[in-house]
Amino acid sequence: MSQTELPPTKNISSSPAAGTSDFVSELSHADDLYGKLWTLANNLWWSWHPECDAIFRDVDPIRWRQLGHNPVALLREMTPERLADRAGELVLHSRINYAYRRLQEYLNSSQTWASTNAGVLGAKPVAYFSAEFGIHESIPIYSGGLGVLAGDHIKSASGLGVPLVGVGLYYSQGYFRQYLDEDGFQGEDYLETKIENLPIQAALDSDGQPLTVAIDTRDGQLLAKVWLMHVGRVRLYLLDCNVDGNKPEDRELTSRLYGGDERTRIRQELVLGVGGVKALAALGIDPGVYHLNEGHSAFGSLQVVKQLMDNDGMTFEDAVQLSARATCFTTHTPVPAGHDRFPPALVEEHLGPLRDSLGISQKQLLALGRVDPDNDNESFCMTVIGFKMSRCANAVSSLHGVVSRRMWQSMWPDRAENEVPIGHITNGVHVASWLAVQMQTLYDKHFHTDWKHRLQEPDAWQAIHDVDPGELWETHNSLKHNLVSFVRRRFSRQCRRRGESDSVVEAARHILDPRILTIGFGRRFATYKRANLLFSDIDRIAELLGNSDRPVQLIYAGKAHPKDEPGKKFIQEIANLRHDPRFAGRVAFVEDYDINVCRHLIQGVDVWLNNPRRPLEASGTSGQKVVLNGGLNCSILDGWWGEAFNGSNGFAIGNGRSHVSDEITDQRDGEALYKTLEEQVIPCFYTRDSDGLPKFWIKRMMNSISTLAWRFSSHRMVADYTAKSYVWAAGGVTCEMRYR
């Protein structure tokens, strides 16, 4: 369904009262309101504008929550007449009209940051490829940090006016829904998403027909239809293999994110890369820049080469050079398991027909995915082909850049490590998506009127130091109360689902205390993230939590990959602490971590805990979201925090060094974590002035916001990509000298 295409409404002439002008006028007005709400619902711009979110919520608060904050599903249950009645009761007419006008002004504006700073992209747009996009909890095509980063990236591209289209896969079952059984062990459910409840429409080819692309493999064609979503000014195209003509197993190919075996994975990545490039060509989109967000889409570079050879008569070598110049590649992980690798036979099965059309040998193709082109025993790595088929490559934090250059130096054996051509652009977060309404109101009151248009500028955030400390503290505490209420609802629901006693369910409704220091931890439960580090000395942490004068409470959330048994054990260990009297009411594990749970956590915690084994956290963005809402980070000096911490804008665990022995590193970091909590975090929080305010804590909150919010916004990130990568790749740099 497009932005302007509406569901069928009641035929006026069929009504018994159709002859009266009053009825016609009333129904026309109802249709007008209904149509405007459908327009809003069908562009995900609404998801980062709280005034739009509030309209949908107010229409029917109960169903809004039950439907997972999905405006399309909500409107499908309503008629124009019923909506008109609700609008009349709640005086929604002016709010709907105002939101609708704002959307139209936004979409039609030609004066943007990019129109001044990246004009060349207007004729040569960016094609941004990612295996997942986390835009809103009602669009379940993401699993975690990579997807949420991609969602924030395209939102900021929209806000800055960067000409960009997104390309991904449509997962009908998304990532799994998590539940814990009576033993605290993670279980997984896969639920089919009703596509009619999504703001999505069939993408149309040049003849106005729904677009399907075909990808040849050695064992037959793979077909994928193409869907379109609108994310502000950005068009997001999603490929879906559930189409007639595919084998039954291939119809399920894109049903689950990160599911199946390596054959499923390579086929998904073939569809994303090769199918995505084919889809753009069929849509008449001629990108000037291809941005590969991680290696999953790197096969697409070969399709770009084929198009250059077919259209311009180039040789393979010349087409590779031209394609690589226009390609930007971002690597996201220093963890070896995070880099997809495939055996040669599997590569030949799926890339063989494309290889034939390129006129290259199997050895030449495999060499593109091997660090050592002559090593026949080396598997084909998607990260390696991403590097080789691009001329602009980056890591996602300063430290990750150092690690990546060391990790991949063997690809450039004639260069010193510091000369390896991998730079870094540190990740950021989309401010409007993660900023609590209460904090936005505070900023609107005290910041310059144009602060929302200057998110990536340091000066825009300095006014936080002029805010009354009591006002900032009260705003934070209101968010903390919201978090505690949310956790109580979710925790009691979890107990009820497991069939636990009424007394246990009732106790769950009263866990946590909004007056005491609250530490949050929410992320993927990969073992290197060490979710259980805080419990390495169980008696010591029990004493901290149970201190009668300065108590502490913990909220955990996160999923382990279905095949990650150690990660599941970490979850079980933490979740089952609720049965220990020392931790009862002080530790809560919230099931099914998603964007909604994350939003509540990062907006309400006092402290965000991050303790990965350095240097395995490439960047991390959850702590950046906390900054916006006044929470403080307590983190290992890894990823983004390694370049963010200045001594007064949060807390550091350890000194930024690691031992060659992981066991010793874990012991040292565990001790450092306890000392940081005991000697810095807890005393700072509970030291109060005569007004009952933790003035030193509030000062750190202000320092955190003023020094970090602008630096780690996705507007700054996308501006960096645009200035340092996109404009260069599109040939729009006015001066680039080379000296000998």
TrEMBL record:
Catalytic reaction equation(s): [(1->4)-alpha-D-glucosyl](n) + phosphate = [(1->4)-alpha-D-glucosyl](n-1) + alpha-D-glucose 1-phosphate
EC identifiers of the protein: 2.4.1.1
Domain DUF3417: 36-139
Broadest EC class assigned to this enzyme: transferase
Pfam families: DUF3417, Phosphorylase
Family affiliation: Belongs to the glycogen phosphorylase family.
Full protein name: Glycogen phosphorylase
